[in-house]
Amino acid sequence: MPNPDFAYVQRILTSRVYDVVEETPLQFAPLLSERLGTKIFFKREDLLPIFSFKLRGAYNRMAHLSPAEKERGVITASAGNHAQGVAFSGQQLGIRTLIVMPVTTPEIKVAACRRRNAEVVLYGDSYSDAEAHAYRVQQELGLTFIHPYDDPLVIAGQGTIGLEISQQMRAERYRVFVPVGGGGLIAGIAIFLKSINPNIEIIAVEPDDSDAMYQSVRAGYRVTLDQVGIFVDGVAVRRVGEHTFAIVQRYVDDFVRVTTDEVCAAIKDVFEDSRAIMEPAGALAV
């Protein structure tokens, strides 16, 4: 077991996330638990203001901008939820936000960003395409790029979920199943929970048609996928992050890859236990 990464733990413990969010519940799922013969809990990140954990990382990163950076504004690329997190944070902090989104992004997410006064540009078929365009625009306009996952402050923001789980789940041993796209969420959760309790198992869950993290860990380097599936659009990433890959290599115990049919079944399972309707990425780990 590697030594705890105290720098990340410190960033998580001193995060600015709780300026704008409250702790989300860890909800028991009685029907799924009975069917599987073990206790299952849902971390209800859909109850946050933008209905996604992405607000945590985006706000934490933007709250740490210098006055000059805030004055110039920010840009990001996102498949949807990070974009809403940046738009929300920009509105709260009074920062201009420019967001590049893949053309496959659901209209509901595009509209949500525009309602928060973000400037939205639709470009490319995947996050990677949108990201490349965003970096070009960043150079032209002198904006600060807010990465959706490969940034220590973003990872620390997402890591506050691990902090909350550690306080809500008192068992000595348990497994945490985490949906994976670029890796920011699982990196933050894993590095915090494993640092305080190595007995906790962290399981990465990816679609079988967007499994960049699994392929990268198996290869030993960051693999770039030729294409990604679009059904689970929130995790449709062709290449995982440099920071996130290194953390996943050290701290994640195992991988599960799932089919589109299994994701659809998970959406139904979550609804039956909670009456909440999850987007595919939100139900992925179930």
Low-confidence stretches: none
Placed side by side, the strands forming the largest sheet appear as 5-4-3-6
The profile of the biggest β sheet is: 4 strands, parallel
Shape-level CATH architecture of the largest domain:
3-Layer(aba) Sandwich
Query: Helicity range of the residues?
Result: 40-55%
Order of helices and strands: HEHEHHEHEHEHEHEHEHHEHH
Overall number of domains: 2
Total count of helical runs of at least 4 residues: 13
Determine the structural class based on helices, strands and strand pairing: alpha/beta
- Distance between the amino and carboxyl termini: 27 Å
If you compute it from the alpha carbons, what radius of gyration comes out, rounded to the nearest whole angstrom? 18 Å
Write down the overall mean pLDDT.
94
Strand percentage: 5-15%
Q: Give the overall silhouette.
A: globular
CATH structural class of the largest domain: Alpha Beta
Fold and architecture overview:
Its cofactor is pyridoxal 5'-phosphate. Belongs to the serine/threonine dehydratase family. Pathway: Amino-acid biosynthesis; L-isoleucine biosynthesis; 2-oxobutanoate from L-threonine: step 1/1. It catalyses: L-threonine = 2-oxobutanoate + NH4(+). The chain is an alpha/beta fold. The chain folds into two domains: 6-47 and 151-283, 3-Layer(aba) Sandwich (Rossmann fold); 55-145, Rossmann fold, CATH 3.40.50. 47% of the residues lie in helices and 13% in strands. The chain contains 13 helices and nine strands. It has helices at residues 6-13, 30-36, 54-63, 67-72, 81-93, 107-115, 127-141, 152-168, 184-196, 212-219, 242-251, 260-274, 280-283, and strands at 26-28, 41-43, 74-77, 97-101, 119-122, 144-145, 175-179, 201-207, 254-258. It starts with 5 loop residues before the first helix and ends with a helix. The mean pLDDT is 94.
